[in-house]
Amino acid sequence: MLIELDTHFHSVASTHAYSTVKEIAHSAFENGIKGFAMTDHAPAMPDSPHIWHFRNLKVIPDYIEGMRVIKGVEANITDLEGHIDMTDFDLEFVDWVIASFHSVVVDNKSCEDFSDAYINVAKNNPYVDVIGHPGSLGFGFQKEKVLKVFKEYDKLVEINESTILHKRDGIERNLEILKICKKYEIPVVVNSDGHYCDIVGNVSNAEKMIEEIGFPKALVANSCAEKIYERIKAKRPDFAMR
Q1: Contact 190, 157 (CB under 8 A)
Q2: Which residue blocks in 115-222 are alpha helix, DSSP H?
Q3: Which backbone phi and psi does 3 adopt, to 5 degrees?
Q4: Which residue of 10, 45, 85, 116 has the lowest C-beta tally within 10 Å?
Q5: At what angle do helices 170-184 and 143-152 cross, to 10 degrees?
Q6: Per-residue b/e over 197-216, b at no fewer than 16 CB within 10 Å?
Q7: pLDDT in tens, 171-200
Q8: Is 93 helix (H, G, I), strand (E, B) or coil?
Q9: Rounded Cα–Cα distance for residues 168 and 23 (Å)
Q10: How far apart are CA 13 and CA 29, in angstroms?
Q11: Would strands 5-9 and 35-41 be described as parallel, antiparallel, or unpaired?
Q12: pTM score > 0.70 for this model?
């Protein structure tokens, strides 16, 4: 199995997802991984929970059925300046931050090049850990230039199984990103971006792609749970490694 943690997963708190945290944990156990990050949508998305959802994540146990539950958020990049829809105060309550573009938040018909926005996200948001599904259609960017900036500012690049499976040209776009990341030794995370519990940890199509191009497993940050815990601890000293 390629990954030990699925670090992008949605609970029923995102209303287009269908499973409780406990159901996701049970499926994670059955699927043979060590845990997951619960990353429901931040407030700019129409289906997001109230901001109190994120401020109250402390009530969720660190382990459910032996599975590590990382408390996170999928924040929205809200403009071409690279702002996100979570304040620094709100980000203090989460351990893991994905920043993603979504077409319901940003009009992707008004711009063909989102490079500056991605670069600003990387430079100006120290809490952000992952750039979410950059292989999505509609948010084109200068891949080689921008991916090198992600590495410079220690942002993990997501290879997103859902994009590969369900988005037009998702295979081609993610493959191009992977090849550039291999060339420049840019770390990635490989995630399901799942919305139903049975999917957690299932990244078989991304794994096949990685094997085909000989992408180093050492560059897949979530291939080792401890690597993720160490990354979180470095930014958030109160995070419990065990």
Answers
A1: no
A2: 115-124, 143-152, 161-166, 170-184, 204-213
A3: -115, 150
A4: 116
A5: 50
A6: bebbbbbebbbebbeeeebe
A7: 999 999 999 999 999 999 999 999 999 999
A8: coil
A9: 30
A10: 21
A11: parallel
A12: yes
